[in-house]
Amino acid sequence: MKRMIITCPHCTASFSVADEAYRPGRKARCSQCRHVFAMPALPGASAGPVGGSGPTPAGSLAFSGGGGAAPNDADFAMGPGPAGQAAPKKAKKSWLKYIVLGCVALACIAGLAFGGLLLKDAYTEKKAIDTVKARREAREQEAKDRKEQDAQVSSITLVNVRQTVVENKRIGPLVVIEGYARNDYDSPREFIEVEALLLDKAGKVLGRAKQAAGVSLMLTQLQVLSLDELGKALNNPVDILSKNVNILPGGQVPFLVVFSGVPEDLYSYEVRPIRAEIPPAQGQ
Predict the structure, then answer these.
(1) CA distance linking residue 206 with residue 196, whole number of Å
(2) Residue 174's CB: how many other CB atoms inside 10 A?
(3) Residues of 218-255 as b/e, b for ≥16 C-beta within 10 angstroms?
(4) Section 150-157 average pLDDT
(5) C-alpha to C-alpha distance for 217 and 96, rounded to whole angstroms
(6) Rounded Cα distance, 273 and 183, in Å
């Protein structure tokens, strides 16, 4: 059987083609570089007999092991269409790679999201624990302070306590709580201080104020003084130092607590002593 020797114009690889399979213009694909080209009208090398046996199946020419001088017996695929029509290429299965990459990306995103949720939950839990701990410590400190205050003022008795509402021409209504703090200790006390609370019907605190004893104001002062003037009058150091020092056993000192405005839900009030110091001479 006669065979033709043709050369790939792209990579110059030579192939032997059976004479009956050769057709000028027929599309062929080089098995070395996969270049598709049309068979030339005249091959680069002269046609001649090349060793081989049996006919080659149509549509694909595969040569191997033939005797003689075949320059490069190798697979040589040819397209079945007419000249000018390229042989169809096999679709590359690159979509599998993109699916794998997409799955990996989704897994990474899911992992990051899950990790973020864990961190957020841990932070929220820690914040809640810290809040509860801080509140518990605050309550414990308040109870400790209250116990110490009670020990300091256990024998300070408030007497003749009353609450009134006074209409101030500049400020409006004032809630006024006044009375006397009596020293029931068997030794002098000084710098007595009280705390007054305004409460609603459920016992909720609507207002809170602390005030050093020793100051008393006339009704006309409560009616005409501005808020700033009232503050200065209630904390007048002359009155405090003259009336709220070295209070002998059984002695009394006046106190006056003023709230600006009357809370809408005001139902009751409380007032209690929170401080009473021992004069230096007695503490030595």
Answers:
(1) 11
(2) 20
(3) eeeebeebeeeebeebbeeeebbeebbbebeeeebbbb
(4) 85
(5) 92
(6) 11
